Amino acid sequence: MELGIPLFLAAVSVGTSAVSAVLGLGGGLILQVVLSLFLPFRDLIPVHGVIQLGSNFFRGMVLWRFLKWPLLMECFFGSLLGGVFARTFLIRISEVHFGFFMGGFILFILWVPFPKMKIELPGKFFILFVVNTFLSCLVGATGPFVAPFFLRENLKKEEIVANEAIAQGVTHLVKVVVFLSASFEIKNYSAFLLVMIGAGFLGTLIGKRFLHSLPEHFFRILFRGVVSVLALRMLVLSLLKVL
Known about the structure:
Layout: H1 4-23, H2 27-35, H3 41-62, H4 69-90, H5 96-111, H6 124-139, H7 143-151, H8 157-181, H9 190-211, H10 216-242
């Protein structure tokens, strides 16, 4: 890469990490779209996963007082099982299929309505993250998919951001391991990834300052709005590729 491209992407990483620190999601999707302009499609998902792994875990640790460990344990074990399923499936598909899965996922999160009531199901976050990790290995960013479940858990804004960050961080960790086992060459991106992760840390610190000053009611409205806008954006991008 020319020097200007990593510098530009580092600035994007700062901005998107700040967005995620304030809203709980959104930054990962924006970053993935931007990275797709510069990276080979097959490398996009694992490279994005490594960057988001660092950003999510750092965001969760900054807000560690708000973590809900029973919820996170469900997410952890669900992610492990989802990764096993994804690894089995991944070896049977070619690069050409990734675009198909991305388009299908966009249509799902946009048109399939989530239940409006709080779901009271034993082990629901275990089941959610089996599905989430499997999907993440195929489509990358899955923030809009899991966001409504955290939003309906009667959590404060800091608890939503912290717990979704760690849960998604585990998903990214499992995803990276899956791709490494499928011969992804991470060393080709080692210097670039260090710069991007460092930029993500900076963005998280910037975003954290705004999170505590954001009114709870406004946060929830903004959170829902971001889910809708990003889903619409992903649909438009998918349709443009087809046309």
